[in-house]
Design brief:
The protein is an alpha/beta fold and 520 residues long. The chain is 40% helix and 15% strand. Strands 2-3-4-7-5-8-9-14-15-16 form a ten-stranded mixed sheet, sandwiched between helices. The chain has a two-stranded antiparallel ribbon with strand order 1-6. It has a two-stranded antiparallel ribbon with strand order 10-11.
Length: 520
Amino acid sequence: MKKIVGVVAVVALFLAAIGSVGLVVLNTIAEDSPRTSSRPPRPSPTPPEESVTEAPEPSLRAFYSQVLAWKPCESNTEHHCTTLEVPVDYEKPRGETIDLALLRVPAQGQPTGSLVVNPGGPGAPGTEYAAAASLVFRRPLLEQFDIVGFDPRGTGRSAPVDCFTDAEMDDYIAGDPDPDTPAEEQEFIDSVRSFGASCAERTGELLGHVTTIEAARDMDVLRAALGEEELTYFGASYGTKLGATYAELFPERVGRFVLDGAVDVSLDNRQLSLEQAAGFETALRAYVQNCLDVTDDCFLGDSVEEGLQTISDFLDAVDQQPLPAGDRELRVGNAFYGIVAPLYNSDYWYALSAALTAGLEGNGAPLLQLSDLYTSREDGRYTDNSTEAIYAINCLDDPTSIPVSEVPAQFAEFEEASPTFGRVFAWGLAGCGGLTVTSSEESLDIRAEGAAPILVLGTTRDPATPLRWAEALADQLESGVLVRRDGDGHTAYNMKNECVDYAVEDYLIEGVVPEDGTDC
């Protein structure tokens, strides 16, 4: 759902920044990944069948009857790109419109349809997720489906939300997410206020129309433009909230849905933050335990508690004195995000160990590199607007924000949930205080009554989306079917668990619904 980004400290259910796509950066394996065969773009049906393009109301007919004009992408001519037009405000369909960026990776075999994908965030560009399909999805899905990604409204290249310059974003992300002096508290307050005000000034009217509900409405326009009677969908992390919202709005259009790393859509911002704090603590403990298990001399200490204390002490030290990191410096915000980022996938624990070892020796560069990866910073600039979009989407979806003066009253419960990270998550409860616009959409009670079976995946030690959330979402959805993965890291599919992988692929390809409550 959200990255742990900037002093606002709203926390990520984010997959793409350091998930399967992050593998490209960490392991430099993109050159060896399987490629789709080059072929000219196939048009969508012309015209799509009337039953497919039937709009929920007549005023939306022009959007639903669009025909997509696919062309080879400039960055990779084996992929196909185009745009989809949608209204800024669905209550005013004859008003302003925006174009959503789309990317399609053609099926390696004979396609049976399109698999629309979303990587989470919110704020992650879905086009980049689709472009990395050969890393994200296994061959059975790559052969069977055209993988279609879209940048949700306000993200990527779809009328992106804009809040800060790159230099301002550097300071925002590096700021202390756990202020512990009056001066740091004032910096936090100033940052929250300026970020929200700047978002409104630089983005304009669109800022109030980047809700999950509106993005779900956009997905139904996309379904129609793809010529699909029903939507086949794979959503990860926040993408599960987006998928569940779609299922509530359009239950009759739900085809085969996989919601991986699921979000409990019934929880408010405070409860989400509290439970996610516990999830990251669980993941950090698992990381330290692994260090103890694989070596007789773990650099963090001789016990899990000692290792956690080493990490806490390190963050405190960086707060007092930033570390040199090449031509920059590692400040405490960067150090925090650099530690959090590799917890999303146990394959990256080696990178965390290397970065922490360097940090403890006085070199902040490796942790800064991980922080940059997490926040999409490269060569001195931010390659997407995920940090800004996360703030806008989540604060519109749930604008609940407490005054800074009330944050300390939250410390005891949050530190009980996460002794290492709890106060950061508590401060995040004040993060939406700078938002100056409100959503025009009413909140939904998500049940998706009448929808086809929806596959919900959860992982026992997922840091960002605790297993309990998947269990709750599967129970809330009338047709939810739960599959649990026993393991570490964020999300379940293509994480070296064949039980999960076969369940997902048999379901998406053959329509075989696994038994509810399957344990893998």
